[in-house]
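Sample entry (85 residues):
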Amino acid sequence: MAEAKAEPKKKQKVPGEVKCSYCDGTGKHQDQTCVVCGGSGKVEVVDMTQKCQWCKGRGYLMKGIPCTVCGGTGFTRPVSKQRLF
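Predicted structure, serialized as tokens:
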């Protein structure tokens, strides 16, 4: 009898709200309103299960400059935007 091969389960994309990694959820960056979350400390992202591979979930590649891949969210891109910059 042939055994059925189990197919690997694909993770579903789960939209949701996460803490802004760029300002660490404070809503402020360098005493100004955070450009990523607009001061709310939270961002809505397309897939909250996957951290950004480029910035490793930090929200920036260089201090003071949001990651252009995830838009500074630290996860996948924001829901309503392709890229922040």
